[in-house]
Amino acid sequence: MSVLLSINSLSKEFKTEKGLIKVLDDINLEISAGESVSITGPSGSGKSTLLGICAGLEDPSSGTVNLCGELISSISETARSELRLKHVGFIFQSFQLIPSLSALENVTTPAEIAGNKDARSAAQALLDKVGLDDRMHHYPNQLSGGEQQRVALARAFINNPQILFADEPTGNLDAENSADMEDLIFELNEEQQTTLLIVTHDMEMAAKTSRIIKLKGGKIDVD
Ligand SMILES: Nc1ncnc2c1ncn2[C@@H]1O[C@H](COP(=O)(O)OP(=O)(O)OP(=O)(O)O)[C@@H](O)[C@H]1O
Ligand SMILES: [Mg+2]
After folding, report:
1. What's the CA gap between 112 and 116, in Å, rounded?
2. Cβ atoms 132, 124 nearer than 8 A
3. Ligand 1 mutation target, pool 24, 25, 48, 201, most atoms within 8 A of CB
4. Distance from the CA of 169 to the center of ligand 2, in angstroms?
5. What does the buried/exposed string (b/e) look like for 32-44 if buried means 16 or more CB atoms within 10 Å of the residue's CB?
6. Torsion 213-217-221-223 (CA) sign
7. Lining residues, ligand 1, CB within 6 Å
8. Quick check: 1 pLDDT over 80?
9. Looking at residue 45, what is its pLDDT?
């Protein structure tokens, strides 16, 4: 199987008042196309940081990230945005929906930017799929946390990404909604053959992925 994401000698440090903290320490990882992988680890272990770097949203302190055939740590920000738009879906821990846009507009926008002439109907179909057909014209502040998370899921899938990065996609949901969200992610993954990299504390969800990676002390914990 072809390698879709390859991380080599990746380190990330942050400057803080107490000095330099090393959050990721010489990480190596390869993920093949079609694989589903979960990342677990204690709060503060660097899961969100790792996900952001893999998706080209954040720069590493050292090391390289190869995503969808591009060395993203060394291409321009414009080229990176283009790569993300075409090939990457991202669900943020805090959703990051655009507050001034309705649910439908939030989902439609990335498809319009990508030049999809059927952006609106594609967005409607996805919102329908995540159970928000009667909420399309509502704004994020009119939606519950779980509903916003489902809009974020629809937005992440609108451009048929090769890879979905999801940061605790069930973190704000109750057991029932959480199970629905899981089903949706794995269903969309199956339908669109999307590679998955999911940060989660939910061991049931992690168990459904083909590989579990544990982050601890800046390293991948092999037990
Ligand atoms: N911009 C930043 N500046 C300084 N420190 C940062 C910055 N971003 C993250 N950190 C620190 O890096 C560490 C890892 O943060 P990160 O958000 O990746 O953890 P996490 O594993 O996702 O935690 P959680 O499970 O709580 O979401 C934390 O100690 C955090 O305080
Ligand atoms: Mg996090």
Report:
1. 5
2. no
3. 48
4. 11
5. eebbbbbbbbeee
6. negative
7. 14, 16, 23, 41, 43-49, 93
8. no
9. 95
Structure tokens at 92: 């943020």
Q: Is 194 in contact with 162 (CB distance < 8 Å)?
A: yes
What's the chain look like in SS3? CCEEEEEEEEEEEEEECCEEEEEEEEEEEEEECCCEEEEECCCCCCHHHHHHHHCCCCCCCEEEEEECCEEHHHCCHHHHHHHHHHHEEEEECCECCCCCCCHHHHHHHHHHHCCCCCHHHHHHHHHHHCCCCCCCCCCHHHCCHHHHHHHHHHHHHCCCCCEEEEECCCCCCCHHHHHHHHHHHHHHHHHHCCEEEEECCCHHHHHHCCEEEEEECCEECCC
Structure tokens at 88: 């990457």
Distance CA(1)–CA(63), nearest Å, equals 24
Ligand number with the minimum distance to the CA of 167: 2
Give the model confidence (pLDDT) of 17-30 as tens digits: 989 999 999 999 99
For each of the domains in the chain, give its residue range(s) and CATH number, in order of start. Answer: 3-220 (3.40.50.300)
Measured from the alpha carbon of residue 201, the closest ligand is 1
CA of 42 to the centre of ligand 2 (A): 9
pTM above 0.70, yes or no: yes
Instruction: Output the furthest CA–CA distance in the chain (Å, rounded).
Output: 51
pLDDT on residue 190: 86
